[in-house]
Amino acid sequence: MECFELRGLEQQVVNYGRKEIRSQCLVPFCSHKERGERKTTSRKEELIFAMSDLEKAMMAIIETFHQYSGKEGDKHKLKKSELKELINSELSHFLGEIKEQETVDKVMETLDADGDAECDFQEFVAFIAVITSACHEFFEHE
Ligand SMILES: [Ca+2]
Ligand SMILES: [Ca+2]
């Protein structure tokens, strides 16, 4: 299948995260039963249907980022309020709830590698990698 070719796949995935997934009504995240009942009608749907759990998790990272980054200001960057909302809504089991503005400031300062006072996707992925690594340590020693 040509959509599995490595060349251009990265861009396809990025485009997916930005535009397509919203209109796909979260097909990759629905249950196996629902998916089984759904007829694949397009190449994009076939790709989503064929994705592994790891690939779906990667798509979830992209989708989640854009769900919050698109709320205010630059649609491709998280400002502090968007970052806070994302952490409190999507990472509460791993990070707990952020209440103090001071904590938000500190988190942004830590994540903001290029110093523009916002968190872009690359900075966000680095953040997810750090949390995932910490979870790995934690669950390894459980
Ligand atoms: Ca934004
Ligand atoms: Ca930044």
TrEMBL record:
This is Protein S100-B. It is found in: Cytoplasm; Nucleus; Secreted. The keyword tRNA processing does not apply. It comes from the Eukaryota. The gene is S100B. Keywords: Acetylation, Calcium, Cell adhesion, Cytoplasm, Metal-binding, Nucleus, Repeat, Secreted, Zinc. Dimer of either two alpha chains, or two beta chains, or one alpha and one beta chain. The S100B dimer binds two molecules of STK38. Interacts with CACYBP in a calcium-dependent manner. Interacts with ATAD3A; this interaction probably occurs in the cytosol prior to ATAD3A mitochondrial targeting. Interacts with S100A6. The S100B dimer interacts with two molecules of CAPZA1. Interacts with AGER. Interacts with PPP5C (via TPR repeats); the interaction is calcium-dependent and modulates PPP5C activity. Interacts with TPPP; this interaction inhibits TPPP dimerization. Residues 99-134 form the EF-hand domain. It comes from Vombatus ursinus (Common wombat). PROSITE patterns: EF_HAND_2 (PS50222), S100_CABP (PS00303). The keyword Nucleus applies. PANTHER family: PROTEIN S100-A1-RELATED (PTHR11639:SF134), S100 CALCIUM-BINDING PROTEIN (PTHR11639). GO terms for molecular function: calcium ion binding; calcium-dependent protein binding; RAGE receptor binding; S100 protein binding; zinc ion binding. One of its GO terms (biological process) is positive regulation of cell population proliferation. GO terms for cellular component: cytoplasm; extracellular space; nucleus. Coiled coil: none annotated. Its main location: cytoplasm. Pfam families: S_100. InterPro entries: EF-hand-dom_pair (IPR011992), EF_hand_dom (IPR002048), S100-B (IPR028481), S100/CaBP7/8-like_CS (IPR001751), S100_Ca-bd_sub (IPR013787).
